[in-house]
Structures are given as structure tokens and as C-alpha cells.
Design a protein that fits this description.
The structure is a single chain. With about 280 residues, the protein is an alpha/beta fold. The protein folds into two domains: about 170 residues, 3-Layer(aba) Sandwich (Rossmann fold), CATH 3.40.50.620; about 90 residues, Pantoate--beta-alanine Ligase, Chain: A,domain 2. It is about 40% helix and about 20% strand. Helix 2 links the parallel strand 2 and strand 3. Helix 7 crosses helix 8 and helix 9 runs antiparallel to helix 10. It is globular and about 60 Å long. The termini are far apart. The relative contact order is 0.13. The structure holds pantoate. Pantoate binds next to strand 2 and helix 7.
Length: about 280
């Protein structure tokens, strides 16, 4: 695996691949890699001739400075994991060099930019869209791989690809979960052992909704899920919305694709998850 830190050098390597008509897969990350990221890279390796992974802790998407300051650095482990899985190039740019000359756009994401993550993390999606667009312009992949765990981010990226008319296929990958159901996340490392067990309650609340759609209407389920979660967590939000429009659902007939979204806090760690409520 080759490690590249400079955009121009990466562009040259990509040009050589393109001249050989290689199909290129891309997995953007902020490091602290785990089995979920590994799955994205494996899928990219299966579906493309070459795979690029980026590790870049994007300062623009942190709405709280202390989160950026406390963001863990596990670069050596990350490089080892990528080498072992078979990634071809890892791109690890420095922040000031990466953004040198990059125009920071203002986006109007519509409803997507008003609800849930957008409401609780102002500016977050502006930062995500800015970094992902720049990474896409440098890597110019055929396929880019993202996990469903950050479902609203995924919707923002699909929206961005359409807006910018980029010829990139956004490939959606299922959330990878621990045996307990807990969605894998770099943040889980910050939980105590007991916290990791408690955290599976987030999954339990989602499954509870999935199993009870024929009995309760969406907003009653939301109230019940919040009541369950509040016994163990500080709940930031729990919503059932249509997964295309992101509009809140009052009655099941209003949506073909209802999805539950949740964020809770435990031991100072923000846990995010979601689940399709289609039977
Ligand atoms: O999901 C992430 O890790 C980040 O938001 C992403 C897509 C790499 C952009 O920095």
C-alpha cells in the first residue's frame, strides 16, 4: 500500500490507473478505523480494480472545538488495518495544505439541512459536503462507499453528487454491528466496558419500534422509545421520518420507507443509529 499526502501526487497516481481503464473505489474516513470501515474497503476491493482510502480529520465538520481537539489519533493502527485488508493507496493530507485554495461553498440542503443532525450540529453538513466534494474532485472514483449508520450524511452526499453532477456511484453499505446489536463506531472506544453493554439499549429501542409498527402509530412509538431510552441515556432526539423526504411521519400510510433515527449520550459519548422500519 502506498501512502500519499499531497493531492497532486495522488492525482498523478489516479491518472495512471485511469489510462489503464481501471475502475476506482473510494472509502473516505476520519481514521480510528474499525470492522465497519474494513467492510467498506473489502466491498470496494471486490467491486473495483483499485481502492483508495482517505484518512483526514476534517476540522470544518466539527461544530464543537473540544470534539476536534479530543478526536483520537490511531494512525499507525489504521495504516496497519488498511495494509492488511489490501487497500492500494491511503491518502493522508495535512489540513492546511488540503484546504489551501479550496472554495468553501454555502449549501441549501432543504429539509435535510434542517432536521436531526443538521438541527443539533449546526454547520456539520456544510463541512461534510465541502470535504467530500474536494475529496471526490481529487480521487474521481467510479464508486464511493459509505455506511448506513450515518444515514442523513449519506443522503447529503447523494444530494451533493446530484447537485455537482459528479459521475460517481454512491454505494450504500449496511451498518456493521457488534453481537449485542451496538452499531460499530470509533466513539464506542470511549465507553467503559459497562457503557458498551448499556449502549446496546439503543439497538433494542430501534428493534422495539420495528417489532411494533403494526400495533402503534409512529408518534406513539417515538414516545415509547424515548421513555425506554431515558432510563439509561440522555436522549438528544428520536424521530421516525420518511427516509427519502426526511419529513416526520404521523401515520404509517404517509410513507413507503419509514426509518427511525436516534441520538443519545452515555458517559459523555454521543451515540447515533437508525433503522428501516419496513417489515
Ligand atoms: O463519516 C465520516 O467519517 C466523515 O464524515 C467523512 C465522510 C469521511 C467526511 O469527513
Amino acid at each position: 500500500m502506498e501512502r500519499i499526502e499531497i493531492k497532486e501526487k495522488l492525482k498523478k497516481a489516479i491518472q495512471i490507473w485511469k489510462s489503464k481503464k481501471y475502475k476506482i473505489g473510494f472509502v473516505p474516513t476520519m481514521g480510528v478505523l474499525h470492522e465497519g470501515h474494513k467492510e467498506l474497503v473489502r466491498r470496494s476491493l471486490l467491486e473495483n480494480d483499485k481502492t483508495v482510502c482517505s484518512i483526514f480529520v476534517n476540522p470544518l465538520q466539527f461544530n464543537k472545538k473540544e470534539d476536534l481537539d479530543n478526536y483520537p489519533n490511531t494512525l499507525e493502527n489504521d495504516l496497519e488495518l488498511l495494509r492488511n485488508v489490501g487497500c492500494h493507496i491511503v491518502f493522508t493530507p495535512e489540513s492546511d495544505v488540503f484546504y489551501d485554495g479550496v472554495k468553501i461553498n454555502k449549501y441549501d440542503f432543504g429539509v435535510l439541512g434542517e432536521v436531526m443532525e443538521a438541527q443539533f450540529r449546526p454547520g456539520h453538513f456544510e463541512g461534510v459536503a465541502t470535504v467530500v466534494k474536494e475529496l471526490f474532485l481529487v480521487v474521481t472514483p467510479d464508486n464511493a462507499y459509505f455506511g448506513e449508520k450515518d444515514f442523513q450524511q449519506l443522503a447529503i452526499i447523494k444530494w451533493l453528487v446530484k447537485l455537482e453532477k459528479l459521475l460517481i456511484q454512491v454505494v450504500v453499505c449496511k451498518t456493521v454491528r457488534a453481537e449485542s446489536g451496538l452499531a460499530l463506531s470509533s466513539r464506542n472506544l470511549r465507553l467503559s466496558e459497562e457503557g458498551q453493554l448499556t449502549a446496546s439499549g439503543v439497538y433494542d429501542a430501534l428493534i422495539f419500534c420495528l417489532n411494533n409498527t403494526s400495533i402503534f402509530d409512529p408518534q406513539t412509538l417515538v414516545e415509547m422509545a424515548i421513555a425506554k431510552l431515558e432510563q439509561r441515556f440522555e436522549v438528544e432526539y428520536f424521530e421516525i421520518v420518511d427516509e427519502d423526504s426526511f419529513e416526520r411521519i404521523e401515520k404509517w400510510e404517509e410513507s413507503k420507507y419509514p426509518r427511525a433515527f436516534v441520538v443519545v449520550h452515555l458517559e459523555g459519548v454521543r451515540l447515533i443509529d437508525n433503522m428501516s422500519l419496513n417489515p
